[in-house]
Glyoxylate/hydroxypyruvate reductase A
Amino acid sequence: MLDLHAFLADAFLRVAPEVAWLSPDQVTDPAVVDVALCWYPAPDALHRYPKLELIQSLGAGTDHLHPALRSLPDDLSVCRVTDSHMSRAMSGYVAWAVLNQQRQFKAYAAQQTEGRWLRHPMQSAGEHCVGIAGQGQLGAACAGTLLELGFQVRGWARDIKLNMPAALTQFAGPESLEDFLSGCDTLVCLLPLTPDTQGFIGERVLRQLPPHAHVINASRGEHVDQDALLSALDTGLLAHATLDVFHEEPLPPEHPYWKHPRITVTPHVGARTPNDQIVRQMLDNLLAIRAGGRPRTWVDRARGY
């Protein structure tokens, strides 16, 4: 489990040495706590702080906060972390994952261990369509990167987004999901985790993809129905899956993902915000709230993002 206090201690010393950065067991007077910076807090972890002004997520999502938020005041501000570094990092990860499968680089890595020189047929980027489910900041950045590499790119979200790349084909709403999926050679999941998107990569979605499709999940582990994914891979309904996030992290050594020949596992490395940036953004959010404004990364708690 992440020791959040130790994880951010150096960043607070560099960025805001005047701020008292305390772990829960160091708090002697809960009434002096202004901000709770959280990553998977216990459901009752925040009740003891009567004067909270801000709950700050450590990551780009806030789904991990939901159990702890349920009984807190509706007007208590919740913010997530977002920055250009995270967008660039995620774009790089997604581009690598797409190319790793589309260009068959895993096969070449295996051939190297055997000293075998063999070229496989190569599909051009323009013949390959990547679908991105989730068109927020990260999804938009990934779309732009993939378009620059020459891929066809389509995006799906709850509604049509403005200021997206002109070459991006947009699909919106549940009624367009089947059309969106049917044209995806690669499906990238970057959706926010909400009750509606939990288990998104399940039997229904997997059956609507072409059988040669590749699925990439870099959002939340709970987006995947694990049994449905393994079944689709084992029966040939799906060609490959690249997974960076999981229901349980670290992924247990005995989990079937590790040794599955059609799964690539990475240990939640898709995108990470520098610690100094997390602290600066938290302080900026608190200042915005105290000035009577709404922070740029404010989260609509009803929608979950």
The radius of gyration is 21 Å.
